[in-house]
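Sample entry (133 residues):
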Amino acid sequence: MSSNPVVVSMPSASILEDGSVAEMQFKNSDGSLQLLRFSPGTLLVLLSRVFQMFVDEQTHKAAKSGHLEVQPIPTVATSAQESVGGSAVILSVRMQNGTPVSFSMQIAEAEELNKQLGQAVQKAKQQSSNARH
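Predicted structure, serialized as tokens:
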């Protein structure tokens, strides 16, 4: 067995029926299998950190190539609604692969995002129109 096997796949992943534990089985480069169990809170922290690592890696690659551009993940549905009690706005996005992601924003952040979205939509429409002519 290698002293430093690398994860090569995730053959299975599941959540217990009661939602108390998430399990992931990883297959390593040396053929061994490793089962990891996480509480929902720990899984959320892990996913946040893994996503940040992905973003950092993409940014590092882009910086080395001299092309700092965002690589967006396509979405198929979005929605926004007020939180219970109205102290925040919940933005929900369903990615093309079906994964739902929700963000909670303070009202001031949501207002700024609303403003930026309006400006971005106008610019995109304008560029799209110019490209057709």
